[in-house]
Design goal:
This protein has 372 residues and is an alpha+beta fold. The chain has 3 domains: 114 residues, DNA Polymerase III, subunit A, domain 2 (DNA Polymerase III, Chain A, domain 2); 119 residues, DNA Polymerase III, subunit A, domain 2 (DNA Polymerase III, Chain A, domain 2, Roll); 119 residues, DNA Polymerase III, subunit A, domain 2 (DNA Polymerase III, Chain A, domain 2, Roll), CATH 3.10.150. Helices cover 19% and strands 41% of the residues. Strands 6-2-3-4-17-16-15-10 form an 8-stranded antiparallel β-sheet. Strands 14-11-12-13-25-24-23-18 form an 8-stranded antiparallel β-sheet. β19 and β20 form a beta hairpin.
């Protein structure tokens, strides 16, 4: 086979598809991307046997008969990115693949495309359309709280809780919980609650990010199908029941303090400079019009940072793992956040009202914090 195509388009779509390729696999053939032409359409396809991604190319010239070829994903992606814009040529014959462009020629060893595994997934479920940038923002805020290596597989992903009037995305690792909500302008008439595994949710975020083009989502009993323009992803869903997250979100917190984002982030970072490297403990003391942040450890010393606030209630001191708070503040995209809290022992809620983002986290136990 011989293919001539646009280098920029090919590199971009190969990068999207190759993101599925596993970093380690007992099947070496999965380290490749399948390039296939059915006589009319030309597409790139990759799978790790749980997720499949495909992208259709729009600008190309090739012979009319169907063909397919295997591309060593890492090598070809590096080559086409270095070649950059302009005309790109690929030619495959047997176990030889030639890539040419911008005065460069690369000859690579390639496998047999007949050995590449098929991927079967049901395209069931009614589609729900969301604006891509909004979905990407929701996923970015939730992925920070996904569990890693949990004994409960349902926590190793993002819950898509779909109701006719809204979509909620929720993730938790048991120490904190992220919740984002999107309200539909027109009810969608669908209800489902499905957990999308972490890798698929991360790929979906990348797929959705960019311009305002909508993403179509279809949830079946076992599969998610997501489409955006020339990209299509199919992913196996987590089989398990997500915890009843609504019971975790407190509704009776007595105090609310509004913060400008950057001063609050800066104060937290300063307080953590000498905090314990395991607990990352920082105490937040809310006093009359003043927040005092204290960190420290026996090995390093102590820190104290003060920040003016609008607060006139009784003093409250709450110790936190500052890293968990900073994780949430890093994904906030507006200039203002609200901190809702009660007494020690109650969870607190960090909220970004403009993005319908809530982040629930428990304070540390006083003996764990061990702060002055």
């Amino acid at each position: 086979m011989r293919l001539v195509c646009d280098g920029t388009e090919f590199a971009g779509k190969l990068g999207s598809v190759a993101a599925v390729v596993p970093t380690r696999s007992p099947k070496p053939v999965l380290n490749n991307v399948l390039l296939r032409h059915d006589g009319e359409r030309l597409e790139l396809f990759a799978t790790d046997l749980e997720i499949a991604m495909q992208a259709e190319l729009e600008r190309f010239e090739t012979e009319p008969q169907p063909w397919q070829a295997l591309l060593p994903a890492a090598q070809v992606l590096s080559i086409v990115r270095e070649i950059g814009a302009g005309q790109l040529e690929l030619e495959a014959s047997g176990e030889r693949l030639v890539v040419q462009g911008d005065g460069s020629r690369f000859e690579l060893l390639a496998g047999d495309p007949e050995e590449y595994p098929a991927f079967e997934a049901e395209d069931e479920g009614e589609p729900v359309a969301l604006e891509g940038e909004a979905l990407a923002g929701m996923l970015r805020r939730c992925l920070i709280a996904v569990a890693v290596d949990s004994h409960d597989f349902s926590l190793e992903g993002v819950l898509f809780d779909l109701r006719p009037e809204r979509l909620r995305l929720v993730a938790t690792d048991g120490n904190r919980m992220s919740l984002c909500e999107h309200v539909f302008e027109t009810p969608v008439g669908l209800e489902s609650a499905r957990v999308v595994p972490t890798k698929a949710a991360t790929l979906l975020q990348r797929m959705a990010d960019g311009d305002g083009e909508a993403v179509s989502l279809r949830f079946g009993a076992r599969w998610l199908v997501a489409e955006r323009g020339p990209l299509r992803m199919r992913a196996q869903l987590v089989q398990g029941r997500f915890p009843p997250y609504e019971q975790v979100v407190p509704t009776d917190l007595a105090h609310t303090v509004a913060f400008e984002l950057q001063p609050f982030v800066s104060a937290l970072r300063r307080a953590t400079l000498v905090s314990d490297k395991e607990s990352h403990a920082v105490a937040l003391r809310f006093g009359h019009e003043l927040l005092t942040l204290r960190g420290g450890s026996p090995q390093l010393g102590h820190s104290e940072v003060q920040l003016p606030i609008a607060y006139e209630d009784d003093p409250v001191a709450l110790p936190f793992n500052a890293r968990l708070l900073l994780d949430a503040l890093r994904v906030v995209s507006t200039d203002r956040v609200e901190f809702h809290f009660g007494d020690i022992g109650q969870p607190v809620v960090l909220e970004e009202p403009a993005a319908a983002f809530r982040y629930v986290v428990m304070p540390l136990e006083p003996d764990v914090a061990a702060l002055p």
